[in-house]
Amino acid sequence: LGASAEILLKKTGVDFVCTGEGELTIVDFVSCWVDAQSRNDFKQVKGLAYLDNDQSLVVTPFPEAVKPDQVYDIDWSILDKLGETEFFIPTLEVNPTFGNRLKKNPRALEHIHLGKRYATLAGSKGCVARCTFCHRWDKGIRYIPVTAMMERIDSLIQNYNVGFISFADENFGTDRKWLAHFIQEIKKRDIHWQVGGMRVNTITPEAIKKMKDAGCVYIQFGMESGSQKMLDIMEKVTKVEQNYNTIKWLAENNLSTIVQLIIGMPGETPETIRETIDFASYVVEQSPDNDPNGFSINFAQALPGTPLYEAGRRTGKIGQSIDGEENYLIDVSDQDARDGESYINLTDYPKLYLEKWHFDIANTARYKYVQKWGLDRYHDIIMRSERFSGLKEKDSFDLVEQLSADSGYFADPARQSEIGFNSGAKPSPWSLLKQGRIGAMGSFYPIFFWKTRGLNFIYVLLNSARKGGLKYGVELLKECLIWKINSLLNQPTSYFSEYISLRKFIRKKLLPDIPDDDPSMSPLRNGR
Q: Which of 171, 186, 234, 466 is the most buried (most CB within 10 A)?
């Protein structure tokens, strides 16, 4: 939100915005505050945005980067003194998603019953990529030295009985020399761990095998799409073949992941969605343990300081005035990227198409799973799914089953924790209708919805009207009909006729500048 510093400073009463890493900026800021006579004195502090004595916007240069061995160097004793250790280093029951990934591992189950605790660390800060939907203050990436990492891990083991660690990196192991050293060292410790983010263009089957041997149970990747055209728009700097290879290698090593997809970027079409559907089908066909209801399918959400946000402003989808931007930010605040309401449509197709695309991906993946592994296996995996864990009766839970409960981590507003059922059987269509769980019907009855897929537009329209109200459903239908008529009468036009990075679109002036923009905001709008 700091990338919207102008709005914060002029609309909210906020006096100063930190525009980069805060560790050094806060020290310099407080030092300046002690003797400051006016706002103008803060121009010497790097990493600030504020309004000066004349109410003009000032954005100072970005601060120097924190040294790698000092990044995320946490003094855990502060939490001990405050009595907050239990919150930050809990037992595994409070992170059921991680726990569910450990259930096949006898040694991990032993750790669970011994009360081993869970901690989150990072091995690096920053990113090697500049995805056009993603904002960051960091420039480049810094890897924390492996020796420093092991000292931190040993401290957590000795002082807090930690047996499970989640590494919350965005680019874990992109430096292959660092990764090899890390695997060598962590294998010496009795730890089970997962990775929050790796890149498909840096992983190898050998690395996956060694990571698993060293205690890794789960790896997450930013795959985003099955279409090379959309990966190029996103500036992922990856190849769709690398997505396919990674899924194959994970299945061969019996390691799980959650495939995260972003749909609705500028340039998205039925053809690019078909390519993503093909990729989703490939995922579920690689292993019967790949949950077809486990995809995290999100609509592209424009965040300040990203090319996607600027594309929204320059095409008029986001207000170009301060008031217009503020209204957009209020609309998307505290929303999931999947709720169907908190995103703007930056494609050349009606919003109803986007909702249908989402359903098409999920619907096809479910059917392809059934086709490959059978309906009985499908019903088995859906009853064990993290998304539908609430189907189990409360009094039947044991410690391990509790670990399957929904953590709320991934965007899924259709969480089914309250669905009723009898004796472990799937709920009937009538039961789901009575409970208002229409969105779950596709999951429990994949064959029916595949055979009637010609009616998907109607299903999606009815579900949208259920979520947003009758008026909302009518608006979606009206927009779709007008678009259809216009497309028949006129040759469709698009801002995004080239499949190049959105950043290049803006730099090549293929999208119009906004003349009233304050030039001081340029460093923030452009991102690092």
A: 234
Residues 6+ apart with CB under 8 A from 327: 319
Q: State the maximum Cα–Cα separation within the chain, in Å, rounded to a whole number.
A: 74
**DSSP per position, 304-322:** TTSHHHHHHHHTTSS-SSH
DSSP-based helix, strand, coil % in the chain, nearest 5: 50, 10, 40
Least confident of 303-317, 397-411, 426-440: 397-411
Distance of alpha carbon 58 from alpha carbon 340, whole angstroms: 37
Q: Give the angle 515-520-522 at the CA atoms, nearest 5°.
A: 70
Percent of the residues in the chain that have a pLDDT greater than 90, as a whole number? 64
Is 133:300 a contact under the CB 8 Å cutoff?
yes
Half-sphere exposure at residue 441, Cβ-oriented, CA atoms within 13 angstroms = 21
pTM listed for this prediction: 0.90
Residues 105, 85 contacting (CB under 8 angstroms): no
Residue 479 neighbours by CB distance under 10 Å: 16
Length of the chain (residues): 528
Q: Which amino acid is present at 264?
A: G
Reading the block at residue 119, the tokens are 């901690």
Q: Helices marked H in 120-163 — which ranges?
A: 146-160
Query: Is 390 exposed, middle or buried, given 0-12, 13-18 or 19+ CB atoms closer than 10 A?
Result: middle
Sign, CA torsion 182/187/189/195: positive
Please give the backbone phi and psi of residue 262, each rounded to the nearest 5 degrees, phi first.
-120, 125
- Interval 363-376: pLDDT, tens: 999 999 999 999 99
Query: Distances from the Cα of 45 to the Cαs of 37, 40, 59, 121, 225, in angstroms?
Result: 14, 11, 10, 29, 41
Rg of the chain (C-alpha set): 25
